[in-house]
Amino acid sequence: MDQARSLGTRRGARQTALKRKEKLIQFLFAAPALIFFIVFIYYPILDLFRISFTDWNAVRTDIEYVGWKNYRWLFAGSGADNLAASLKVTILYTMGELACSLIGGLCLALLFNRMTRYFSVLRGLTVLPKYIAASSSAVVFVWMMNSRQGILTYVMDAIFSTGEIRWLNSMPLALVSLIIFAAWRGMGYAMIIYLSAMRSISQDYYEAAALDGANGVQRFFRITVPMLSPTILFLGVTSFLSSMKVYQSVDVLTEGGPYEATSVIVYWVYELAFRDFRMDRAATVGCVFFIILMILTVLTMKWS
Predict the structure, then answer these.
(1) What is the C-alpha to C-alpha distance for residues 209 and 8, in angstroms, rounded to an integer?
(2) Model's pTM, two decimal places?
(3) Which backbone phi and psi does 65 adopt, to 5 degrees?
(4) Domains and CATH numbers, the chain
(5) Cβ distance 252 to 178 under 8 Å?
(6) Is residue 190 within 8 Å of residue 235, measured between CB atoms?
(7) Do 65 and 54 touch, CB atoms closer than 8 A?
(8) How far apart are the first and last CA of the chain?
(9) Where are the bilayer-spanning segments (predicted)?
(10) I need a surface site. Which of 187, 287, 289, 302 has the fewest CB within 10 A?
């Protein structure tokens, strides 16, 4: 009896040691990623909040604690109007890009879903802009939107006789041009996701609907769209969050102009930090924007 008990005790101790060893190995594998997140993400975020309570100016070496002064400047001072304007531009851009990318990607997916010849080539050309660096593709887009010799200007003039179009230098069109650029880059990615989801839908649904007399439009809205709803939600959430943080295309295409008409909130943070050298105010705006994004993310995930 005692021998069996001691044998069971040894076996239990051995299993406990193995479990500890497995947990240690798992921790060691996760440690590099954990260290990366702590050093390059979590610590900068926490330090951002600390800076927002100081008067850090990049041209001065002395830094003092000023309490809520920067937040009063942002919500009750001269920064309030800029905050409202930047948020408005950011939301307009996000909604426009979201609608164009999701609807345009769905239209392309419906078109390519029926194609057999040249499918791979056309799909690759459609997705290509997404995987080119935003700054590089923005330079190409600047040439395409040249007010005199750009290909988009040429096409519009040939169809509608519009003449010279100041795509990036006029207030009504600058934001529209940014949305077109974002949709140009995002539709291909949305198309690939839609295609993957479409090809996982069983054809039995469509055959049964056709036997019941449903036409193509009815099959699309009563079968395809409901079956694609998780995909649409996924693309909507990811596109929304990435569009809210847009910076590169604004910097290359419009530099926030004309007259701050395309100054999204991230670009305003950049201007505060590296043009006005007000690191404290840039940190304050960044903190507020971070909180806004966190709230929107939580609400979106809860709603989904």
Answers:
(1) 64
(2) 0.86
(3) -80, 130
(4) 79-303 (1.10.3720.10)
(5) no
(6) yes
(7) yes
(8) 58
(9) 24-45, 91-112, 124-145, 165-184, 220-241, 282-301
(10) 302
H-assigned helices in the chain = 2-37, 43-51, 69-76, 79-113, 119-127, 134-144, 151-160, 171-198, 203-211, 216-219, 225-244, 248-253, 265-274, 279-303
User: Residue 18 is encoded by which pair of tokens?
Assistant: 């193995």
The CA distance from 80 to 299, in Å, is 25
Cα 1 from chain centroid? Answer: 66
Please tell me the distance from the alpha carbon of residue 95 to that of residue 234, in angstroms, as a whole number. 16
Handedness of CA 187, 190, 191, 192 (dihedral sign): positive
Per-residue tens of pLDDT for the chain, all 304 residues: 555 555 556 666 677 777 888 888 888 888 998 899 899 988 988 999 999 999 988 777 788 899 999 999 999 988 999 999 999 999 999 999 999 999 999 999 988 887 766 667 777 778 888 888 888 888 888 888 888 888 888 888 888 888 888 888 888 789 999 999 999 888 989 999 999 899 888 888 888 988 888 888 898 899 999 999 999 988 998 899 889 999 988 998 998 988 889 999 999 999 999 999 999 999 999 999 999 999 988 887 777 6
Q: Which two tokens stand for residue 296?
A: 């929107």
Residue 258 preceded by cis peptide, ω within 30: yes
- Token pair 């947990």 is found at 23
**CB atoms inside a 10 Å sphere around CB 188:** 21
